[in-house]
Amino acid sequence: MVARTTGVQLRRVMTFSRIHSTLLGAALAIAPAQAHADAIQDIAQAELARSGAPGMALAVVRDGRVVRVEGFGEANIEQGVRVHPDTVFKTGATGMPFTAALMMLLVEDGKVALDAPVSQYLPGTPDKWAGVTIRNLIENTSGLPATPNGDFLAEYTRQEMLAILASQDINFAPGTRYRFSYANYVVLGQVIEEVTGEHWTEFARHRLFEPLGMLTARGIDELAIIPNRAAGYEVRDGELRNAAWISATANSTADGSLYLSALDFAAWGQALSQRLLLDDASWDELDHAISIDGGAACAAVPGWFTQGAGRDLAKWQAGTWQGFQTYGLTYPEHDLTVFVMANGEAANAKDVARRVAATFDPSLPLAGAVPMAGADSATIAHARQLVEDIAAGAAKRADYADFADLDFRELTEMYAAMLSALGPMDDFALYEKRESCAETQFLYRAQYASSVTEIRMGLGTDGRITSLEIVPIGDVSEPL
């Protein structure tokens, strides 16, 4: 068991917080005063114009220093309130790395062991979870369903939410496959609450946010009076609308139910760069590549996805929630981290983050994407048919491996609704192929009359789909 944080480390964090407050105070004062246009402003303003999103904020940390914190556009279009560095946005899944860090604090406290079964800490887990460990949950290798599958308009107790999850089938045996799951982090939040006796956001406040100087970070509470809160906007019938209401329960789970500002993300970026607060052993756990049984490595670390290798390695996480789009991107070998938040669901926060990062470090890859040369036409045709089957509501259960019936149905119905609204497919091409997580992963892009989607499809050795993600992107040549 890793030892608790020492007094020296705590003094280091306290000193950091004081310095950090000074730096961010300067950033807050300087950013609005920049009257001249520059590359960062051009990138942000162009994306607001393209997407119709009202506002955006970003934070950039380079070599452990905050080098840019700025807001653009409107936080609330009904009130005409501008976005500032301290405007808080809902994070969505970009909040997951905080939950992983909280679990490592509990490991350091001696209250949780990564390789212990979750049932050791959380009463009420079903027998089918017998092999699920804390590590499986943090690493998304548990086999738990993708989502809790509850009613977003209903309120649940923690025990009722756990019972909903417990009633669902496991997708695969723990440790045998990697698959991103919100449910994993929902359960981790319940473990935190059971072990500490307080809500996971309260534990985060006094053990993570306040020590790091994340002064406006907090859990979501729609009824609270929260200064500088941005409104989230969705697009319905071509018009911006306020995000639909959901229950307090649905906005309280540890899969990313947080408000954070650009200032908060800047402080977190410094913590990532300087390895603050946690012990080195804990940071090592959070930085190591996830692997599954048999040793196959996956393109992910706890709380983040990864892309590339060596000096080009990038860690990233994206959040989509109630009219907000957020994206965290860090290049460890370049000591460069960018966070982007927008309050419009059509905003491409990922593309903004990539372009902003390349502005600070031109050596980063940002070439326009082109289809792979010499790609097998039969493979492409088969993948296109699988996607068109989904769009037509005719996805075949036999084409999917390691999906429980519920996850298969929810996945294909969600993508059917998305794709059927786009009309006929005009073009479909393969852009990348790689081996990861004991599967062959393909990245396709499909063009429609007025939109482009990116399809990330993993196939097992039997040719069946083992992972699938379909997301809209701004342009077919958007960098990979």
Word description of this protein:
Helices cover about 30% and strands about 20% of the residues. The chain has about 475 residues and is α+β, with helices and mostly antiparallel strands. It folds into two domains: about 375 residues, Beta-lactamase; about 100 residues, Nuclear Transport Factor 2, Chain: A. The chain has an eight-stranded antiparallel β-sheet with strand order 3-2-1-13-12-11-10-9, with helices on both faces. A four-stranded antiparallel β-sheet has the order 14-15-16-17, with helices on one face. A three-stranded antiparallel β-sheet has the order 4-8-5. Strand 2 and strand 3 form a beta hairpin. The longest helix is centred in the N-terminal third of the chain and has 24 residues. The chain is globular, with a radius of gyration of 22 Å.
